[in-house]
Amino acid sequence: MKVKVLTFGITKEIVGDTRVELELVDDSTVSDLKNRLELLYPALRTLKSYFIAINDEYASIDQRLLSSDEIAIIPPVSGG
Amino acid sequence: MVGVSISEELLDAEACLALVADELCGGSVSFVGSVRKETNGRRVTRLEFECYTSMAEKEMQKIGEAAIQQFSVSHVVIHHRIGVLLPGDVAVVIAVSSPHRRAAFEACSFAIDRLKETVPIWKKEVFEDGEQWVSAHP
What UniProt keywords are attached to this protein's entry (chain A) (predicted)? Predict the structure, then answer.
């Protein structure tokens, strides 16, 4: 399945675009996605942390992805 | 009532306090967060805020609801500015009203602490001699 992943802040600079499209096997989890992203963009591992959001909610590491989901990389936030 | 807003417009603390005004509330507290002109001794030229707007609005709404639930306050308003801000510019305003003052102070403090932990807004500090995304690296 194909997924689109939105990027923000420093991850937009690491990826070099506001989104990245990936081909994942069906039933992939957030953990699978993070592994793939870190393979493609090793600089993600230098971050203090980062989360994956699915449909505007922080996702757990074992949550499964659907190609219809809105997926985003959430690097350490710094609002306020 | 919870009110949230994210925009590039100037923020107005008085307007936020007016939004939480309620004759049943004896106390209102506001927090105003503004851009410092120095970080660790380095002169800040500007801050660039960016945001995942749809998620950030939901997270801010959740913070307001949690504050009402945990501290029994009546109203919480959270307004955040994004875009390019200069030293002295106001980046965030939180206003809380409550029948009693202590709950309003506590809820306001809770809300800004939580905002800095969970709301997907990011700021890049731009210095005279470089730039960095705040908190990105260990």
Answer: Nucleotide-binding
